[in-house]
């Protein structure tokens, strides 16, 4: 039986505050560095309205793992590209502030200086295995830091809304489609 979070020794309040302050400073510095160095450009990738090239590298690794079991292996490449197009459409219609926050999440996932420590993916996304990505997703989902749990929730919701908004996904979940009018 594995210990639950409440059975493991907890940080003291002071320790948690120090850790949180350090993590916040680290993320703020990394974000500022990315924006000053041009890593965080707002130029969309070719063929996309909102998703940038760096975002696509991350998402092309994440989406197949997140859709595993919902899509047959032979249809996965088309499902990934369709999901990315749907996600791009949704992001293009977000408020500027929400788009900014989403891009900050993608920046954290895209920069090596933050990706390694926060996700456990030390190399590029293209070289990450499905198990490494599942471990990263589990790590964020069950993190004691609410910021990482929110990041997981945001990623999951963005990808799932883009996937299940597509007609090809409906049969898997038993949805017959909208009624004809």
How would you describe this protein?
- By secondary structure, the chain is mainly alpha-helical.
- It has a domain at 47-167.
- The chain contains eight helices and no strands.
- Helix 2 (53-66) packs across helix 4 and helix 3 crosses helix 7 (146-164).
- The termini are far apart.
- The mean pLDDT is 85.
- InterPro entries: TAT_signal.
Q: Topology of this structure?
A:
Layout: H1 13-37, H2 53-66, H3 76-92, H4 96-110, H5 112-119, H6 130-141, H7 146-164, H8 170-173
Helix pairs in contact: 2-3, 2-4, 3-7
What is shown here, in short?
With 181 residues, the protein is an all-alpha fold.
State the helical fraction.
55-70%
Overall outline: globular
- Please identify the structural class as seen in this structure: mainly alpha
Radius of gyration: 18 Å
Distance between the termini: 54 Å
Q: Count of helices?
A: 8
User: What does the average pLDDT come to?
Assistant: 85
In total, the number of strands is 0
Measured by DSSP, the beta-strand proportion falls in under 5%
Biggest sheet architecture: none
Order of helices and strands: HHHHHHHH
Please mark out the parts with pLDDT under 50 across 5 or more consecutive residues, or reply none: none
Descriptive keywords:
single chain; 181 residues; mainly alpha; 8 helices; 0% strand; TAT_signal
């Amino acid at each position: 039986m594995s210990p639950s979070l409440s059975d493991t020794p907890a940080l003291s309040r002071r320790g948690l505050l120090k850790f949180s302050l350090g993590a916040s400073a680290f993320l703020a510095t990394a974000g500022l560095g990315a924006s000053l160095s041009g890593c965080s450009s707002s130029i969309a990738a070719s063929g996309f309205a909102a998703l940038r090239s760096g975002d696509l590298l991350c998402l092309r690794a994440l989406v197949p793992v997140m859709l595993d079991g919902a899509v047959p292996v032979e249809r996965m490449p088309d499902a990934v590209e369709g999901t990315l197009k749907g996600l791009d459409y949704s992001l293009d219609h977000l408020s500027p502030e929400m788009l900014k926050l989403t891009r900050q999440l993608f920046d954290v996932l895209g920069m090596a200086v933050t990706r390694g420590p926060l996700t456990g993916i030390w190399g590029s996304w293209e070289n990450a295995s499905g198990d490494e990505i599942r471990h990263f997703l589990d790590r964020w989902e069950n993190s004691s830091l609410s910021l990482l749990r929110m990041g997981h929730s945001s990623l999951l919701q963005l990808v799932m809304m883009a996937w299940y908004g597509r007609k090809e996904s409906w049969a898997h979940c038993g949805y017959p489609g909208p009624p004809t009018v």
